[in-house]
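ugh ok fine here u go
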Amino acid sequence: MSEAIQPFEQSPREETSIAGAASLIALGNIASRVLGLFREMTIAYLFGASGLVSAFEVASRVPRMLFDLLIDGLVSSALVPVFSELAERDRSELWRVAGVMLSLTTLLMSTMLLVMEMGAYQIAWLMSGGFDAQLLQTTAHLMRLTAPAVVFLSLSGVTTGLLYALKRFTLPAFAVAIFNASLVLVALLLTGWLGLGIESLAVGMVVGSAAQVALQLPGLRDARLHLNVNLRHPLLRRIVRLYTPIVLGLVISQVGIVIDRNLASRTGEQSIAWMRYATTVVQFPLGLVSAAIAMAILPTLSRLANTSPVLEEKDLGTHTVAFAETLTRGIRMVLVLILPAVVGLFAIAEPLIMLVFQHGDFTAYDTQQTALALRLYLLGTTFAAIDLPLVFAFYARQNTLTPALVGMLGVGVYLVVALAPSLFRALHMTDLVLANSAQLTVHAMVMLWLTHREVPLRGYGLEHTLVKIVPAALAMGALTYFVQLQLHAYFPGGTILDELCIVAGAVIAGCSVYGGLLLLLRVEEAYTLLALMRRPFLGWMR
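structure:
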């Protein structure tokens, strides 16, 4: 019995390492999400929630879809686990495999670039057939301008996976931030000073994606990379073998996105713009919390999962226990941080949207519709937050087939929920948003069940944490809603300062109550967060 619990003597060190990595990633995510909000604020100010914004959303979605399909899923499901193993064992082999991956990525994505340039109108019609002829032409024009971004986004993704495997989190953590900053600067420069229209956003996207690559290159200054296309490298075959099962799920997922955008284009030309702005707000806590923690625990999960077949049964048991403890620790931290964010955003949706977006060409009606979409998206946000660590847990165990199959199920749920109301009436934007939340909920619940079957999660404090934080989050939400109602009476002017006072006052009150309740209820993660916040301050004092 004592041997079984021996590894837990080092768990505080492991927890500190994971929490520190997550904090660094979260810091980069704070910068990227803040700049991402500023990016959307800039777009809303310049172009409102017009059909032009919907056209840019569709055009910019295509490079991102190709990146998600061919690179992003590959990074988390195969590259990080394989690169992490090589980083521990053989650095020279790591550089050889990385060189092959960068070469193949450049070749493949350059081909995709040519396809986008030549078939822009056909792709635009497939994505947004509900647009009128003029808006469809604009979408195709923007797609040709954004196409080069697919090469830079993909190279940045592979570089990010390599740096994460080396546990060099700083530069990749700020890659998205530099992308958003570049897009904002280019858009303001080209639109404000040179009078360019919506095309400024497309140019900004290409510049931003190139800046991501340039930012991360210093992190590989000790790398001995040689570009070559060696299709027979054994580890390349292993990467392909790990990634092949997930391709089907990703293809189905991307088909779902195409269907979603096509259906949304038929509910009004502004619907995609409203959904875009609402999604931006939802992605803020998801990127800040779920993505940061999931990426921080992935290398550790990969190391714990890659056990040697010669290990004794008791050692395999301790690895399984450590794996489950690391995963549940990550999920608990996600829940502690994401629940108050979801409840708080639900309570102050309209004043928040008004503060962030209702300037320039963005109208009060746009605020109302965006807030409605936001609240419906939030119904599935908590499930989306815990889903990512669960998916990464399967990737760490080099099981990419199961998440792919569950992803197919999720797309099926989306299509059923989205299309069912159209049997009785015209399709609405809200049908699509609700379908998205249903998809995320079912996906997370199935992934949790499957994970528990392979690696039992009971006994690691997950239920105990939920029992404490759910009532704390609900109490916080009720107070936040009440405070923002009261503040409306004191700040009725509708100015930016009034809106800021309402939102800030409600958020401060809600966070104070939630934090106090966590400490009162002795939630372990609250003390971990306090220790992380004290560390930089104590270092500065010294």
